[in-house]
Design brief:
The chain has a single domain, classed as TIM Barrel (Alpha-Beta Barrel). The protein is built from 11 helices and 11 strands. Strands 2-3-4-5-6-7-9 form a 7-stranded parallel sheet, with helices on both faces. Strands 1-11 form a two-stranded parallel ribbon. The radius of gyration is 20 Å and the shape is globular.
């Protein structure tokens, strides 16, 4: 099967892709780790944290209910396992008060202190970005965000922040504040683009359109804020042309970094119901690697890569099975990229 993948990649790349590198030369792709090492000067790692009380506007009913059809946020909140979550307490942009701010700040501290020794020991990390990962991390009153972000920047060896969010859940006030922080710190905002096709965004219950994503990515760049775009390949009813067009637009909007992964089906999601009814079939590994190689070849040399694959190795993954072994998947991706004249 893998030989077939490589053969297909060779044929397609020969016909459709021209590289900026000189003929016969291998293009070294810019990894996010390499970017940080050069920018900060030492090995720098992201420290993922999850803060109770944060949710999403397509979960709480502000724009929709149920969340994205593929999302099971607990799987992205492993850090919360070590702290006591806040029950039945959720913030939004209109919240007037936050009686649990001190508890949230304590959660932040506990998670950072639990994770950084491992990163120092196992990866020789010397500096850190605090990565606000799960749910929508600008979907709260400004004073709450300011308190959390500033506390994170006080931690030992922290040089910046990376904030995962949605384009419909950030304000001009927050962006102006982050732009000010970026004068002294490494500040990133990570936007979920997923797709630039509104019919797809509606199908996955995203709750906003592509124009909204474009607006806030461009505004972030106007203010000098680093932007990472998240893109999913294999979304319902999307073909290769549509996936590559999403990549093209993300680059056009000015992203500085990219995360790409395939859509996989997890238990306890609306997508799992569609899958059970035969209404959705995940992309196969051969097709994913094929379109991924084409997408990566489109990247300007200054755009870093943070992720090219994702999955989960437990029983909550329903399909496809190839997403269970991320290490094997990344080996296949690297080989295919090498065939196409790129090294990751």
């Amino acid at each position: 099967m893998f030989l077939l993948i490589l053969h297909t990649v060779k044929l397609v790349l020969t016909e459709t892709i021209s590289f900026s590198t000189q003929k016969g030369k291998t293009r070294q792709l810019l990894t996010y780790g390499s970017y940080l090492r050069e920018k900060i000067g030492v090995k720098t790692y992201k420290v993922p944290v999850s803060i109770s009380g944060f949710t999403c506007p397509n979960i709480d009913g502000s724009v929709a209910r149920g969340g994205c059809t593929f999302c099971e946020n607990e799987s992205f909140s492993p850090s919360l396992n070590s702290v006591q979550p806040l029950k039945k307490f959720y913030l939004n942009l209109e919240s007037k008060e936050n009686p649990y701010l001190e508890k949230q700040l304590e959660q932040l501290k506990l998670q950072f202190e639990a994770l950084t020794p491992k990163l120092r020991r196992n990866h020789k990390a010397q500096k850190f970005l605090v990565y606000f990962q799960s749910f929508t991390n600008t979907y709260a009153p400004f004073e709450t965000l300011k308190a959390l972000y500033e506390r994170a920047l006080e931690f030992e060896d922290v040089v910046g922040l990376s904030i995962g969010t949605r384009s419909d859940s950030i304000t001009e006030e927050t962006l102006q504040y982050l732009a000010e922080l970026s004068k002294k710190h490494e500040i990133w905002v990570e936007y979920g683009i997923q797709s630039v096709y509104d019919e797809t965004l509606e199908r996955i219950n995203r709750g906003h359109d592509s124009a909204n994503v474009e607006k806030w990515i461009k505004r972030s760049k106007e203010l000098g804020i680093n932007v990472c775009g998240h893109v999913i390949f294999g979304l319902p009813e999307e073909d290769e042309k549509m996936m590559l067009h999403t990549m093209e637009k993300a680059i056009e909007w000015g992203i500085d970094s990219i995360k790409i992964h395939s859509l996989y089906v997890m238990e306890r999601t609306a997508l799992a119901n569609e899958y059970a009814q035969g209404a959705f079939k995940p992309i196969d590994e051969e097709s994913y690697i094929d379109v991924l190689v084409k997408a990566v070849a489109m990247l300007p040399e200054n755009v870093s890569i943070q992720r090219l694959s994702a999955g989960i190795d437990d029983k909550s993954l329903l399909d496809p099975p190839w997403c269970k072994d991320k290490q094997k998947s990344m080996t296949n991706i690297r080989r295919a990229l090498e065939v196409a004249g790129m090294k990751y």
